Amino acid sequence: MGSVNADLVVGVDRRPAPGETVLGSDLATHPGGKGANQAVAAARLGGRVGIVGRVGDDGHGELLRAALAADGVDLAHLTTTQGAPSGVALITLGPDGDNSIIVSPGANARLGPDDIGSAGDMIAGAAVVSFQLEVPMPAVEAAARAAAEAGGRVVLNLSPPAPVPDGLLALCDPLVVNEHEAAYLLGGEGGPHEMAAALVRSGPRSVVVTLGAEGVVVADGEGTASIPSPKAEAVDTTGAGDAFTAALCLRLARGDSLRDAARYATRVGAAAVRKRGAQSSYPTPEELPVD
Questions:
Q1: Cα separations (Å) of 159 from 25, 46, 67, 137, 254?
Q2: Pairing relation of β-strands 99-104 and 128-131?
Q3: Domain range 34-86+106-280, its CATH number among 1.10.10.10, 3.40.718.10, 3.30.450.20, 3.40.1190.20
Q4: What are the residue numbers of the active site?
Q5: What digits encode the pLDDT tens for the residues 114-124?
Q6: Is the CB of residue 74 less than 8 Å from the CB of residue 19?
Q7: Can you give the pTM of this predicted structure?
C-alpha cells in the first residue's frame, strides 16, 4: 500500500548550489513511487502481489498502470483520481550513481481510509503488507491496523521520515529505516547496532537499519546482527532501497526468519544498483549475485 509515481530523471555532472543553474542530460521518464517499486520488485522475484494506491487521470497514470500490469501486479485497488495529476518524483542523478529526489505527491495525497475499506479483502488475505510514507498517515494507520487484525505482518519503510504514532510503531515487524531515518526517530545519531537496539526498545517488534553498500543491521528480541551486502559497482541507486524492502517482505511472507530474509534482500538490493532506473533495474531470481 503506497505511492505510485512517474520518475523524471536528469543526469548531472554535479548538483547545483542554491541559485545556480547546471546543464543535464536528456529527461528520462520511468515508472516509480515507493509503493509501485516494491510491488514490481516483489512480483519480479516471484511474489503474488497486489497494490492499494492512486494515480491521476493523465498520461503518467496510464504509463504507471501499464508498468504494474506488465509485471503481473493486481490492480483491482489502484484507483484513478479524476481531476488530479499522478505523483511525480524529480530526480537528479550524479556521476557516482547517487541521487537527489523531490516528490510531488499528486493523486497519492488523496489516498485515505475509504480506499483501505474498499481493499479490505485484499489486505486481509495478505501474508505481509508493506507501507511507506509517500501517502497520508491516516491511510497507513488504517491499513496497518486492518492487516494486523487479519493476522498479516506489517512492514513499514519510514521513507520519507515523519513522526509515527506509537500505536503504528508497535505493529511494525520490522520497521525498515536507513541511518538518517533512524537518527530522525531517535533524535540523535549513534552506531547502527546501537540505533537498531534503541529503536526496538521504542516499540517495533523488530528493526532493520539499511547501510547501503555496507549491508544492514537487524534487531529483534534475540539481539542485533550485521549482514553484509554483496559488492556491486553502483550505476544508479534509485529505488534500490525499495528493491531491498520488497525482497525482505517476499521472504518473510514465505516463512524465512528476519535474518535470512534480510540476507536474501541484500542480494536483491546489490543487483538493483547495477542498472539505471528503479523498476527497470529490478532483478529476477536468476539475475541475483551469488551469495
A1: 27, 25, 22, 12, 25
A2: unpaired
A3: 3.40.1190.20
A4: 242
A5: 999 999 999 99
A6: no
A7: 0.91
